[in-house]
Design a protein that fits this description.
about 525 residues, alpha+beta, 16 helices
């Protein structure tokens, strides 16, 4: 059976394009190298000590070189490893725009799902490695760097590779710094290992420029993650609970130490003791309206402008603003630009590309919202929203996901409580894992005519689950020339700054913007009055 097929070669072409794009994004140009080890440990090869240098224009020559030594995977052969470090013309290592590692489950060790989850949460792409009939024998890990990563002394790895391996928590140390090309079987002293297809790690349809420009897989974050992982005795529940915060490790360990560092005892008690620190707060994309890490519904009758409102938010969150430029506002409140870094995702279930892009040009005539990814309901043959969100979980930062409307992405009807509950399980899990603001557009019952935002609470279409599971519900309705917007539901403490009362807006039809004109049902503070003066 032939193993060096056209499909494998296409996978390698894509893999090299991704690596070169990452190198170029941090300003690196030069050559990479294919090689075999001078000895037979840990990788076996028929011909030891091979090297082949190549640049971005030499991909086809590189594939020919692989084919010459690979012998279609039949032994004996010499499967060429890749050194992803960019070298100058004198073969001096310059650095890398990617960080990588490989981890194997050896012997009776079994790979656990949370190993991959931890790496994905760092913004690093992962692929499952096979060994013979074992389909989950390890992980291939590749992350984009926000800086040039310096080479280590061995010349075959960079700073961050070891830290990545530590967080993955495999025991296969001797393999950790090697880079295995996808599609090829590499014979090691523990068997033959293969990651089948690089397209599974970084899909072809993903915009590489957007992903690389928005990534935040910084070396400092990898080092912090490794430090925290080891500080928490490599226990996933501790690491997950406390997150990556080296400065808080000592305080976080206090209760764990009181539990005699017994993880089972801690899980039974300590994990339920949430911090009572008065400084704990919620991250907001838009203060008072859109919290991160939670689901917010925007609901209104047809034609009131809920899709335009959600789209306007996505455009503003996906734009990089110039120094000194006024901060953008949404519903009269400023966006926190520190919370808007990374790719924003817009699932458009009703408006096609023509409507979406026409509206986008109105919101963003200069085309500056380069971090916005537009997706249609057809996510690929057999691909569900849940599966696609798992793919998006590989992204380093996802500040905002808009789903417009909910019913297009349900696996059942809007009145099916089980289907709606499953929908919320999917989006809540993503919101929490990525600390993403999950905004879902939803409809009111047919003929609904609310007179107050509180009326909207009882007028949502479909199962009561929509009301029960949403953390925040933003209601909208028309009142003469005004659009009225307020919170029909809010499970966030008022001292954290959530909007109170109803707000009145005039609609600027030329820009599809809602302009704040007044507030009712709330005693305004002096600061709020000054804020309104500036609108």
């Amino acid at each position: 059976m032939k193993q060096f097929t056209q499909a494998v070669q296409n996978s390698i072409r894509h893999e090299l394009a991704v690596l070169w794009a990452a190198h170029h994004a941090v300003g690196l140009k030069g050559e990479m190298c294919l090689y075999t080890l001078p000895a037979q440990d840990p990788w076996r090869s028929k011909e030891a000590g091979l090297t082949f240098w190549f640049g971005p224009e030499d991909t086809e020559k590189m594939l020919t070189e692989i084919g010459k030594h690979y012998n279609e995977g039949m032994l004996p052969n010499s499967t060429l490893l890749l050194n992803p470090i960019v070298h100058d013309k004198n073969h001096k290592p310059l650095g890398s725009g990617v960080v990588w590692s490989i981890g194997f489950a050896l012997g009776i060790e079994m790979m656990q799902p949370h190993q991959r989850e931890r790496i994905n949460d760092l913004g690093v792409f992962t692929g499952v490695v096979e060994r013979g009939d074992t389909k989950a024998a390890g992980l291939k890990m590749v992350g984009f760097s926000s800086e040039i990563l310096p080479p280590l002394k061995d010349g075959h790895a960079v700073e961050g590779c070891r830290e990545l391996f530590d967080v993955a928590n495999f025991s296969s140390d001797e393999y950790c710094n090697f880079y295995l090309l996808s599609g090829l079987t590499y014979l090691g002293k523990h068997g033959g290992f293969r990651h089948p297809d690089f397209f599974e790690m970084v899909p072809k349809e993903m915009d590489l420029g957007k992903i690389i420009s928005s990534q935040k897989a910084a070396l400092s974050k990898l080092k912090d993650a490794s430090f925290c992982w080891k500080s928490y005795d490599r226990h996933h529940s501790l690491y997950l609970k406390f997150g990556i915060a080296p400065e808080k490790v000592e305080d976080n360990l206090k209760f764990y130490n009181l539990c005699a560092r017994d993880i089972e005892l801690f899980d039974a008690t300590g994990a339920k003791h949430l911090s009572t620190d008065a400084t704990v707060s919620i991250d907001f994309l838009v203060k008072g309206w859109i919290p991160r890490g939670a689901v917010t519904l925007i609901v209104a009758a047809g034609g009131v402008g809920k899709s335009s409102l959600a789209h306007n938010l996505a455009v503003k969150a996906a734009t990089d603003y110039r120094s000194g430029e006024p901060k953008p506002t949404w519903l009269g409140s400023e966006l926190d630009l520190n919370q808007c870094k990374g790719l924003c995702i817009f699932f458009s279930g009703e408006d096609g590309p023509a409507i979406f892009h026409t509206r986008a040009r109105i919101f963003d005539p200069e085309g500056r919202s380069t971090r916005l990814m537009f997706l249609r309901p057809d996510l690929g043959e057999g691909t569900t929203l849940s599966a696609f969100l798992k793919r998006l979980a590989k992204l380093p930062e996802v500040p905002l996901v808009v789903i417009d409307p909910a019913r297009k992405y349900l696996t059942g009807g809007e009145d099916d409580a089980a289907a709606v509950s499953q929908f919320f399980e999917t989006i809540e899990e993503f919101a929490i894992r990525k600390n993403a603001a999950m905004v879902v557009v939803h409809h009111l019952v047919k003929g609904a005519k609310p007179r107050h935002v509180q009326d909207i609470y009882d007028l949502l279409r479909g199962s009561q689950t929509f009301v029960d599971r949403a953390r925040v519900i933003i209601g909208m309705y028309r009142e003469g020339p005004h659009t009225v917007v307020g919170l029909a539901k809010n499970n966030i403490p008022p001292q954290l700054g959530m909007i109170m009362g109803e707000r009145l807006y005039a609609r600027d039809a030329s820009r599809l913007e809602l302009m704040l004109t007044g507030t009712r049902g709330e005693n305004l503070t002096a600061e709020q009055i000054e804020e309104l003066k500036g609108q």
